[in-house]
Amino acid sequence: MLYSFRLLIDIQAKPAIEPATWQCRIKVATSLQNYMNFTLHVRLICILCLLCGTTAIAQQVDSARPAVPDTSHGGTIVRMQALAKKMAKESTDDFATDKAAAVQTRLFAEMQKTMQKAGAYLKHGIDTSDAIRQLAAIDRNFIIASDGVLVNKGSAQTFRNLTASSKIITELLSKSNVLKNKFAAYHADLTTFRYQLDSLADDPQLFKLPNDSASIVKYFKHIVVVAHQLRPVDRSLRLASDNVQNIVDSISMNNLKLQTALEEIAVYQKQMAVHTFARDFDDIWGPRGSYRPFDEILAQAKAKGGLTLLFYVQNNAGLLTLLVLLIIASFVYIRSLKIIYIQNQLLTDDFEGQLVLRYPLFSALLIIISLMQFAFWSPPFILSVIFWTICCISLIILFKKFITRYWMNVWVIMVMLFLIATTDNLILQASRIERWLMMAIAIAGIITGTVVVWKGKRNELREKWIVISIGLMTFTELAAFTANLFGRYNLSKSLMIAGYLNVVVAILFLWVVRLINEGLFLAFNVYTRQDKRLFYINFDKVGKKIHPVFYILLVVGWGVLIGRNFAGFEYLAKPLSEFFNIDRTIGDYTFSINKLLLFISIMIASVIISKIVSFFASDNHLSADKDKDGGKAGLGSWVLLIRITILTLGLFLAIAAAGIPLDRITIVLGALGVGIGFGLQTLVNNLVSGLIIAFEKPVNVGDIVDVDGQGGTMKSIGFRSSVIATWDGADLVMPNGDLLNSHLVNWSLAGNRKRVSITIGIAYHSDLNKARELLTEILGNDDRIMKIPAPFVQYEQFGSSAIDVKIFFWARQLKDAGAIKSDLIVSINVLFNANGIAIPFPQQDIYLHNPGETDQ
């Protein structure tokens, strides 16, 4: 411990005894100095004796001593051995003293360094006042959470009240544990600093005195200075450590209180789940029982609902941000799809089969929120109500003037009753007033459902399943009315909200599936360039009939949302959750089914996203647009890089989410390297060539190319191979390595233009200048021919039958080169005939010579 330094500090604090103490120390130091001087002289004498010889040493020693009758030679040797031992001991002591001095210097330096660190740590230490405020806030929130559950209980507990209190207290316990861990770590750091200083101050070498008086005085001065510096740091460390320990103890007691409350609530929840059909109150016409004033119940529900929503939003801010981003992305895409349909006059007035395009924002809200609500694990009921309300309002706006007035009125009534029921479900504690309100809501549902089922205009329904859900709602509301009548409050409330939720969720999900189906079908109609089989979906059937898989998913989601409202749902779902979350071991690797499913899900999502990018981003939407821009794709080969990036990020994210150790990845990469070395060179060559094509871009998607005499349009650039749509109508699949190594002609790099030449023969007697003028006029009148560089006419040579003239011109579009050449040949022939310019055909004159006839 630091007792020695503290003692020195205490001595310094008493100035009355300091002079005497220092005088005594100086006298002792002077005596030690004289002794050391004498020892030094003796050492010098001994060294001279050893140099001069044993005899001379003996004589000098004998002459310096009184006469002793000793004539033996052995006595001299004994005295010399004793003297050597004494000198060796003195030398060892000197070495130990020097070593101690070096250690003392190091210890003093380390103490100075540790004190500086401790001072800086204390200066930027933890804010205890903020912790006290947080503890006070936790206590206030605990009072809100325990109201109606641990205090002011009333006659019976309610399921919603227990659930809300459990979520709030769980969050408070989490915050308290974070605070405790923070202060515990700070206290551990303070303890570490004190231990380091104690261990340095208690080192035995620190208290070994030097041999001379001057060094002793300097030593004591140094150690007093260090002790003076250590005193405030040590006091601050002890004070801070005590304060932090007190806060940690307070937090621990608070945690114990919160944990006890959670355990008590868990007991209530288990009892309620086991006794689902048990009576909670007397019959509706029986005695009132112990109820709180209704205004207090409303205030308590408001406070708890606000806390649960606040805590959940704070903990799931990232997921909510993702929800907003997906809504924005969906809105942008649906809006762009609508613009394409408007520009090409494909949008119908009644939006039949195109409802998703009517209001892109509300379609995006309905689709994304309906699907993303399953990503929020155990959300507070008030957040679910917000999600459902937004979806209902969006669907009402989409339905306006799209469905018949009768079913529109039915849907609006259902939504209103649903919102009233959900508002009642936000009330957490039971009262006689609420029980009568619940009966009124149930009766309204029974009457509405009965009328719709028996007298509804089913022939006007677009989704026949809606009638089934309305019938189920009628039966559920009847059961809720009966349960409430006979005092089964919790069961009645769960049945009441489940009945209305059943109808609303069923209608929302049916139309979400329909809108998604329409979106896929409408996208297929305008995105024509990419392969339709890219998603393994028969787009010809999409939009005409919904796949049964969608209905299966709809029923599963419907069951999950309905089941959340019953007390036994969590206990039934808990074994399934444990099955997926329990850790399993294979060799040294520990995994869970949940992590494996998460890994697979992330990889599947990455593949789907990459395919979506490939399908949509590489297309120019409509053939009319393609004609205008020459078939040039927007992103082209950048799509490959984007897909690779998406898949790579998905792989790393999946590995991180699944918790796969990096050493396992290293083993896999090593095995992959061996495989590459033995037999995968060609595959790796094609993959690397694909990357080179993507970065260097010698060819792009949509380019017109000629590869070893095989011409066509670049259809796609994949990881291993690329596809060229040839002029003959076939698709040429070429490995990327072969494509990169072949003689590739890319007509599109120069802007899809091509120089064309035509050779014509003109008769020798024709007017060549006029012929040039006619040809120049024809070339200038064709808008498909570029004016810069200008076309020109060149006379080549005197042929056997005609004068050869060659026409050179640049076609604006490569695809028009053949048509331009054909049209020019026709025009030139017509114009030359009209102006008397002959185009001779090859001919030879044969002269027959008969010598006999000549002689006659």
Automatic annotation (TrEMBL):
Bilayer-spanning residue ranges: 317-334, 355-375, 381-399, 406-430, 436-454, 466-487, 499-527, 548-567, 596-617, 638-660, 666-688
Subcellular location, principal:
membrane
> Any keyword Transmembrane helix?
yes
Positions of the Mechanosensitive ion channel MscS C-terminal domain: 756-839
- List UniProt keywords, sorted A-Z: Cell membrane, Membrane, Transmembrane, Transmembrane helix
Q: Which PANTHER family match?
A: MECHANOSENSITIVE CHANNEL MSCK, POTASSIUM CHANNEL RELATED
The name this protein carries in UniProt is Mechanosensitive ion channel-like protein
